[in-house]
Specification:
The structure is a homodimer of 432-residue chains. Chain A is built from 15 helices and 19 strands. Chain A has 432 residues and is of the alpha/beta class. Chain A has 2 domains: 227 residues, nicotinate phosphoribosyltransferase (Alpha-Beta Barrel), CATH 3.20.140.10; 176 residues, Alpha-Beta Barrel (TIM Barrel), CATH 3.20.20. The longest helix of chain A is centred in the first third of the chain and has 25 residues. The two termini of chain A are 46 Å apart. Chains A and B meet through α1, α3, α6, α7 and α8 of A and α1, α3, α6, α7 and α8 of B.
Chain lengths: 432, 432
């Protein structure tokens, strides 16, 4: 059974609930939107990730006795009683997982009473802010790797549970494999790995270590060749494993220079099919710089799991409309020059002309033109989770969404979002 | 029951285990060290955090049937059989949680067979790299806040489980409270919070919202006063709650200017004890900039949970010594100009002269002078966890360790580590 997720939230969600239950506002129908006011500086697009995990977590968002015990003293008895029966019974729509997003894209739309929808704020933001940050970084890396496989190996550089989510996010954004075994367990992410320097060092010699590895893991394994002398290690590796050795791994030094030297040496030894994998402090820029080097795979760690400089997306979860005393839904928004938001329920579509995305359309009406592909899909209907899908569907959706973007999306240079966000009022909406 | 932590690890730890079991090297006694080669650029000291969580996780690091099922196909049957009985039976020493650290400080020392110690690598690194990054950022923030309470509220900006660990790390580094309810549940971290803009917006007017909040949460509550007009909100807040209103919160705008205006207004209204809490995109620099403003508390979110620009510590876990065929422990190290490490078992102490830390001593011998305070304490003895302690002990240890640092530790300017790390060979060691 999944552990309750209900306390993975902020104290103030509960005190607001208490005060709103007392005032009656708790029962007003509300619409909350999860969106980003901007992309991380210089980024051309963002990637939506976390949907699958959010839906899993939503199913476990119930206040069990443990949770109620913790809240005794945080909120009053009336609120505790209400929480004991809590189960989200509203509706959620969202961008398909793996889809790209832009400033003001309504990535998630939650409709329910104030009480039931406000409680989800922190948890939903945590999931989307983290997973989308990693997926957004991962997507740039896989784009610039141009088909060479990227291997996620950042688990040790981030919280142990964030590591699992990062492996999942990287996979949906095009990474080939992950080092993380829990991601294999929970999400079926293909895992891979062979050995580290400690394995060489625990043996009496590099030769002993290579022999032990090849004997146990087969000639298709990847030998780590930079513990002592790279050229010597490559020579000995091929002597021990034969020319069928799967790959060698370089984890330090000038990777471009080393990769060329090693390729030459491997070829001279007849090991034409032995691949070269590099793994030292890579990010999208380092990957781009290695485009001309004879590299067959990139292992990416720290920079991937920390979102390559942007470890969080800046998604916010804002009340954009609520019921009034007459039962009508009225738009609401905070008055602020920096932190304002556009009130009212929104729908979104991507305008695609000749197979190429040209605009993100955020509209107050749910009608779109023929060349506008609607982006919101139902995730939860009256509390029932309907949006669950296999991770590979998100992976394919992501690949398709990125293919559709203008070529500038592939640029590593800082710039504006690769397509503009068009805001359309209900009156100005285009009929289908 | 705690969920198994055994798959929160990298695939290659398991393949190394398989190959080492086959070669026999798996049974060699080994010493692994967890340390950082350097501090994040410009930082004066780091803070050790994660010890308590690591020990919790270690107790749950067992391969249950689920885990073994996942590994079927990753490793061979002999390895699966070995894993089924796995339980770490070695020794672990570590810096006390909350202690400060410097480049090459042996923050954790793990002694056991290669097999049992290598398996812990990824999990231990995840915990310490994350928690220490947050604690290191938090410590700078609490130092510069100079006694004004700091409130951790970054849960929504990081992975939902990382959020809980971040709240714990922030608390041990001196934060007063956290918004995170799971941290309250699991670690007894004091939680706090009152309301957000959505609470104001769901009511028909700010007046209605304030009335509802004060009626339900009491006059000691904190009113959020920047949804519409700050001056008006402050006036109405005091009218509604009376001069006993606990606090007002500012979450946008020029906080220094606003805080002065609000203080003047509160005083003019007679609300001399009503505090002012600010919460918009703060970090240690923003806190420092507000030192002269009439602010009574800082809420810190994004920048705290992302380590204020350094979301991971760069801790590595290196094999530094292993048994040879004659049963002697021999030092080992990778040969690398950038990624080298110093072989051999190390001990550490802080030299403190006249109550002031002057050096971090990393020695190959475990004897220290009288003015050198040993830093390693036993955490695990022959597999038994002996280092568990209440979180408040770590919190007090942190406060004491920081008090002892040179005043330059309080500088927000980038610089070198505030004390040097002295390496001492066994021969050059000082007798006590």
């Amino acid at each position: 059974m999944t552990r309750s997720t209900a306390l993975l939230t902020d104290h103030y969600e509960l005190t607001m609930l208490q005060a709103a239950l007392a005032s009656g506002a708790a029962h007003r129908r509300c619409i909350f939107e999860l969106f980003a006011r901007r992309l991380p500086e210089g980024r051309r697009y963002g990637v939506v990730a976390g949907t699958g995990r959010a839906l899993e977590g939503l199913a476990a968002f119930r206040f069990d006795d443990d949770a109620l015990g913790v809240l005794d003293g945080v909120v009053d008895d009336a609120t505790l009683a209400w929480l004991a029966d809590y189960r989200f019974a509203g509706d959620v729509w969202g961008y398909g997982e793996g889809e790209v997003y832009f400033p003001d894209s309504p990535v998630l739309v939650v409709e329910g009473t104030f009480a039931e929808a406000v409680l989800l704020e922190t948890f939903l933001l945590s999931v989307f802010n983290h997973d989308s940050a990693v997926a957004s970084a991962a997507s740039r890396m896989t784009l610039v790797a141009e088909g060479r496989p990227c291997i996620e190996m950042g688990s040790r550089r981030t919280h142990e549970e964030a590591a699992v989510a990062a492996a999942r996010a990287a996979y949906l954004a095009g990474f080939a494999t992950s080092s993380n075994l829990a991601a294999r367990q929970r999400y079926g992410v293909p895992s891979a790995g062979t050995s580290a320097h400690a394995f060489t060092l625990v043996h009496d010699s590099e030769d002993d270590a290579f022999r032990a590895q090849v004997a146990s893991l087969g000639t298709g394994t990847t030998l780590l060749v930079d513990t002592y002398d790279v050229a010597e290690a490559v020579r000995r590796g091929i002597e021990i494993a034969g020319t069928g050795l799967g790959a060698v791994r370089l984890d330090s030094g000038d990777l471009g220079v080393l990769a060329r030297d090693v390729r030459r040496e491997l070829d001279a030894l007849g090991a034409h099919d032995t691949r070269i994998v590099v793994t030292s402090d890579l990010d999208e820029y380092a990957i781009a710089a290695l485009a001309a080097a004879p590299v067959d795979g990139y292992g990416v760690g720290t920079r991937l799991v920390t979102g390559s400089g942007h470890p969080t997306c800046g998604f916010v979860y804002k009340l954009v409309a609520r019921e009034d005393d007459d039962g009508r839904l009225v738009p609401v928004a905070k008055r602020s020059p920096q932190k304002g938001s556009v009130g009212g329920r929104k729908w979104a579509a991507r305008r695609v002309v000749g197979g190429r995305a040209v605009a993100e359309v955020v509209s107050h009406a749910d009608t779109f033109a023929e060349d506008e592909r609607p982006l919101l899909r139902p995730l939860v209907r009256a509390g029932e989770i309907v949006g669950t899908e296999p991770l590979d569907v998100a992976r394919e959706r992501h690949a398709a969404a990125v293919r559709e973007l203008p070529v500038a999306a592939r640029s590593m240079a800082r710039g504006e979002p690769v397509i503009p966000t068009e805001h359309r009022t209900a009156r100005g909406s285009v009929a289908p």
